[in-house]
Structures are given as structure tokens and as C-alpha cells.
């Protein structure tokens, strides 16, 4: 019987340039702990696989992890990477179908080490 590998937690192999860029960014952040900006007018929008969508809906998954890529830096931090953007809610969508299930979840806080951690609150709204 083959086990299904959960690729959510497998880290990609980084290039030397990416490692150096991350080290420099960590130095910048180490000098000054990121603070929060004003509340964002739009909610954060994240696509999830069914398994993780159902875990968040059931309340068993309280933290969503996102890789520290340029895409997520632009979503979670301001342009000079000194402050976190402050989101009150996140909309999770189950897949890419136009009629996919969606739910709105409260965001308690966002932290960063090598990955971004989104600490989730209660489910506020759902479309199913």
C-alpha cells in the first residue's frame, strides 16, 4: 500500500541566490521586528485542497502555513519588508472551480520565520 505524501510541508531546494536574499532579508528584519500596518480593505484570498479546507472548517487546523516566496511576501508584508499587512479575514476557496466552496475565517495574527504562519480564528461565513 502506497502512502500519500503531503507536499504541503516539503520545502523546495533553494538556489544560492535565494538563500543569500533570505539571509539579507532576515538581517533586515532582525534589526527591527516587523510591526503591523493599518487594516487591509480587502480580505486575504487563498486556494486550498479539499483535505485542508475540511480541516479548517472542522476546526482541527488552526494554523495555515505559506512558503516564504516573493508572491507571499507581497501578500503579507509592505514593500520594504518592515511591516506586516494586517488582515481581519481570509477567504479560503476549495479548488479553482467557479462554483467552489468558500468560507471566510477570522485572522488572529500572522507571523514569519522561514514560512508565514496564519493563525486562524472562527469561521465567519460560508457559501454552502
Number of helical segments?
Answer: 3
CATH topology: Archaeosine Trna-guanine Transglycosylase, Chain: A, domain 4
Q: Helix-strand pattern, N to C? A: HEEHEHEEEE
**Radius of gyration, CA atoms, in whole angstroms:** 16 Å
Identify the overall geometry.
globular
Distance from first to last alpha carbon: 34 Å
Q: Tell me the count of domains.
A: 1
Low-confidence stretches: none
What's the helical proportion of residues?
A: 25-40%
For the largest sheet, list the strands in their spatial order. 2-5-6-7-3
Question: Could you write a compact summary of the structure shown?
Answer:
The chain has helices at residues 16-31, 50-58, 70-76, and strands at residues 35-39, 44-48, 63-67, 83-86, 89-94, 102-112, 115-126.
Supply the key terms.
5-stranded mixed beta sheet, Archaeosine Trna-guanine Transglycosylase, Chain: A, domain 4, 38% strand, 128 residues, alpha/beta, 3 helices, two-stranded parallel sheet, single chain
Describe the protein.
There is one protein chain. By secondary structure, this protein is of the alpha/beta class. The protein has one domain: Hypothetical protein (Archaeosine Trna-guanine Transglycosylase, Chain: A, domain 4). The protein contains three helices and seven strands; from the N terminus they run αββαβαββββ. It has helices at 16-31, 50-58, 70-76, and strands at 35-39, 44-48, 63-67, 83-86, 89-94, 102-112, 115-126. The strands form two sheets. The protein has a five-stranded mixed β-sheet with strand order 2-5-6-7-3. It has a two-stranded parallel ribbon with strand order 1-4. β6 and β7 (115-126) form a beta hairpin. The protein is globular and about 45 Å long. The chain starts with 15 loop residues before the first helix and ends with a strand. The model has no long low-confidence stretch (mean pLDDT 83).
